[in-house]
Design goal:
The protein is an all-alpha fold. The protein has eleven helices and no strands. The protein folds into three domains: about 1-80, no CATH class; about 90-190, Up-down Bundle (Receptor-associated Protein), CATH 1.20.81; about 195-265.
């Protein structure tokens, strides 16, 4: 019965198989959904037990425990189902850091008279992130797969759109018999311009973010806590250690949020 449910969930997400392949997760969709379901169930059980112990201590049980478990499970399951997308995004950023350099390396190799297969082998040896995908291509070619089929399969499961563009250009050049280096150079030039635009946009976005961070995370908390201490002495309000710790935790969370926002908005480019 459970297997039928997982199969129906897998059919409801037809793109999951491709995402798992792009993310490098060697699971079929049904198996991944089953593992995600069980992980979400175990985590929900642990949180509910902890919540039960806390609420029992303060005599606040009532009907709360009947409401929270389904919500917690749904949130956990939905979050963990996004694991392939998170891994794809991470792999895409790793590839973007090396893509232009590896592409130019490939162009130089081909212009020097090195065969395409040997040039791809050299890329797999000299670049860590992007070399992993070229190593898969060359391994398949060594096992008897045609170079065009190996490249087509790499295009289908590539986590990076820019890498997919480069591979497509190589495939088109092989099919038409045109000069690979000229078409690759044009694609790399376009990718470089797009990355330069991303850097400029990041610079424009960083200035207001830094100012807002200084206001919300540094100036307002420091002045606010100072005013709170002064007012507590006038209003006979007891400013206990617990309140100060809660304020410190809240300020820390706000700072962590801004740091994470700045970190994730940074383009995946070495500059």
């Amino acid at each position: 019965m459970a297997g039928v449910i997982f199969q129906r969930l897998a059919k409801a997400a037809p793109s999951l198989r491709g995402k798992l392949k792009q993310a490098g997760l060697n699971y079929i969709p049904e198996e991944f959904i089953k593992r995600t379901f069980l992980s979400a169930f175990y985590m929900t059980t642990g949180l509910v037990v902890s919540l039960f112990l806390i609420l029992a201590k303060f005599n606040l049980l009532k009907g709360v425990l009947f409401v929270f478990p389904p919500i917690i499970f749904f949130v956990m399951f939905s979050y963990m189902m996004r694991l392939p997308e998170v891994k794809i995004s991470k792999k895409e950023k790793e590839i973007s850091k090396e893509l232009v350099f590896a592409g130019r390396f490939l162009v130089i190799e081909l212009e020097s008279g090195v065969p395409l297969f040997n040039a791809m082998v050299n890329i797999s040896k000299n670049y860590q992130a992007i070399g992993r995908y070229f190593r898969e291509i060359t391994d398949k070619i060594s096992l008897g797969t045609s170079i065009e089929d190996a490249l087509n399969e790499a295009v289908e499961y590539s986590p990076s759109d820019d890498l997919r563009r480069i591979l497509w250009q190589i495939i088109n050049s092989i099919r038409t018999g045109s000069n690979i280096t000229k078409s690759l150079s044009a694609v790399l030039e376009q990718i470089s311009k797009e990355q330069a635009i991303q850097v400029n946009q990041y610079g424009k976005k960083l200035t207001p973010l830094a100012m807002f961070y200084m206001m919300v995370s540094v100036i307002i908390p420091s002045l606010g806590v100072t005013m709170l201490v002064i007012l507590s002495s006038f209003l006979h309000f007891e400013l206990s250690l617990t309140i100060l710790i809660i304020l410190a935790v809240c300020i820390g969370l706000v700072q962590l949020f801004f740091i994470s926002l700045i970190k994730f908005s940074r383009p995946a480019i070495d500059f």
